[in-house]
Amino acid sequence: MTDPRWLVDEMLGRLARYLRFLGYDAEYARGESDDALRRRARAEGRILVTRDRALASRTPGAVCLASTAIDGQWRELRAQVPDLGSEVRFVRCSRCNGALRPVAADALDPSTLPRERSDRVSSLHRCDRCGHVYWEGTHTAAIRESLRRWSAPSGGGTDAG
User: Residue 20 and residue 133: Cα distance in Å, rounded?
Assistant: First the structure.
């Protein structure tokens, strides 16, 4: 089974980033009309995720969320798409949705390397599109913890994430 491809509208930018943290192809659509979003979702084989009920009702397969907070959005999406993964994967750039590729530290400009102790950085990844560098670090641990809390049966409370 192939991972779903997402088209996330401008009301859900943080959710788009979290989907990318999980390795999903999640395009973030800003400034597009409802008709353009519908055409794009259909043409690119993407699932539209929106808070706009009218847009969702006119778009086959769309997911409509009500929450304005990232933790609520995550819970709602997981409720509607139960097979959605929750493991952080270094596959997609959280900034631009480009593909990440492993890269050796000596191939990078030293100013782009992590400030964390080098013995704690096991692998580096760079975005093919924008060049941003990623590594396993404290930010990744915080993302995992947020996802763990939000995925817990009780929900774990509200989080600005």
Answer: 14
C-alpha angle 153/156/158, rounded to 5°? 130
Question: Please, are residues 50 and 12 in contact by the beta-carbon 8 Å criterion?
Answer: yes
User: Among all chains, which residue has been given the structure tokens 């086959």?
Assistant: 60
| Burial environment of residue 26 by CB neighbours within 10 A (0 to 12, 13 to 18, 19 or more) | buried
Q: Residues of the chain with pLDDT > 90: what percent?
A: 76
108-131, pLDDT tens digit by residue?
Answer: 777 776 666 554 566 899 999 999
> Other CB atoms closer than 10 Å to residue 43's CB: what's the count?
8
Please give the single-letter amino acid code of residue 62.
A
The size of the chain, in residues, is 161
Token match 């409720």: residue? Answer: 79
> What tokens were used for 5?
């491809």
3-state secondary structure of 64: strand
CA distances to 51, 95, 130 from 58, in Å: 13, 29, 34
Residue type, 93: C
- 122 vs 29: CA distance, rounded Å: 33
Q: What is the pTM of this model?
A: 0.88
